[in-house]
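[Discussion] Sanity-checking designs against the backbone

I'm trying to build intuition for which residues belong where. Below is a structure token string of 309 positions. I'd appreciate it if someone posts a full sequence so I can compare it with mine line by line.
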């Protein structure tokens, strides 16, 4: 018997058969977000992954996020639709270079952004995400010197908010946010007088300084939806527009094109598709499987962060 089924039905059938949960980051295509059990920022999705008791975590995001899910819940099978869904920040900090940096700066606490490889997490003392980086740094005694990596813009933002002078910052950047030019934002403010600006902390300092709000993807969505203003300029990946438009259809959200692609899309996040998600659920591959010993060491830094709040 020939049964016609849409790709959405195929995914939902496979999800049920595999006892899987679908986790999607805000930067995924809307059609993926609509199928997900949870959509969130990197911190929220890590917490969701940790508490999942089924068999398979299908992580619709980038590889480092799925690695974190596996570290937090190693008994589960963790899959990602596309093996090449990477991140420029992960690439900016190879573990051998981090080891050399640590050797040059003994006695420093290593604070790593979650956008790092599992090898780098294993070399770190504590992790942070865009939503808790200030709290994580503030949890470290003021006299204790810090190595912060790998995002230069997030590091500078944290240093500015915490007043921390004993913090060295790695020079990595996000190819999407770091190439949002402040002059394009200034132009957009002229074109949309009265619009408020919400930015992700990976944006350049000149952008952050003229923003009304700085926060993670989920924090930006929550702030803009809850604010009484009617128009906003959103300085992050355009995938967040899916939730913004659904939660506040009466408001206007403008996005700025960056200098990398003249768009506001993350090329790594956008590698995932419904077809690849279906195939991954069917084949249980690409699968995230770091060495158990590596995961154990990485878990210490992730757990220290999650214990904070
Ligand atoms: P969030 O912490 O807001 O999920 O951001 C992750 C990210 O990769 C931003 O580019
Ligand atoms: Fe990495 Fe930037 Fe893409 Fe986020 S938006 S996953 S930091 S490349």
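Best answer:
Here's mine. Compare freely.
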């Amino acid at each position: 018997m020939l049964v016609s089924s849409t790709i959405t039905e195929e995914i939902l059938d496979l999800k049920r058969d595999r006892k899987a949960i679908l986790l999607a980051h805000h930067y995924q295509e809307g059609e993926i977000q609509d199928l997900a059990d949870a959509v969130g920022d990197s911190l929220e999705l890590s917490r969701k992954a940790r508490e999942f008791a089924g068999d398979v975590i299908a992580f619709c995001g980038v590889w480092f996020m799925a690695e974190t899910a596996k570290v937090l819940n190693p008994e589960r099978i963790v899959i990602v639709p596309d093996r090449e869904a990477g991140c420029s920040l992960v690439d900016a900090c190879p573990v051998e270079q981090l080891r050399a940096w640590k050797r040059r700066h003994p006695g420093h606490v290593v604070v790593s952004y979650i956008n790092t490889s599992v090898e780098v997490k294993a070399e770190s003392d504590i992790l942070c995400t865009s939503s808790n980086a200030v709290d994580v740094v503030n949890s470290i005694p003021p006299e204790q010197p810090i190595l912060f990596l790998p995002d230069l813009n997030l590091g500078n933002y944290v240093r500015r908010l915490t007043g921390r002078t004993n913090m060295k910052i790695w020079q990595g950047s996000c190819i999407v946010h770091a190439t949002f030019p402040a002059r394009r934002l200034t132009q957009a403010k002229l074109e949309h007088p009265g619009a408020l600006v919400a930015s992700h902390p990976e944006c350049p300092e000149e952008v952050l300084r003229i923003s009304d709000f700085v926060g993670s993807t989920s924090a930006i969505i929550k702030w803009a939806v809850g604010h009484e203003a009617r128009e906003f300029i959103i300085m992050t990946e355009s995938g967040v527009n899916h939730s913004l438009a659904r939660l506040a259809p009466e408001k206007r959200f403008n996005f700025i094109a960056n200098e990398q692609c003249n768009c506001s899309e993350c090329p790594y996040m956008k590698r995932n598709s419904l077809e690849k998600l279906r195939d991954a659920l069917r084949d249980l591959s690409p699968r995230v499987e770091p060495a158990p010993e590596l995961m154990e060491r990485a878990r210490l830094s992730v757990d220290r962060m999650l214990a904070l709040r």
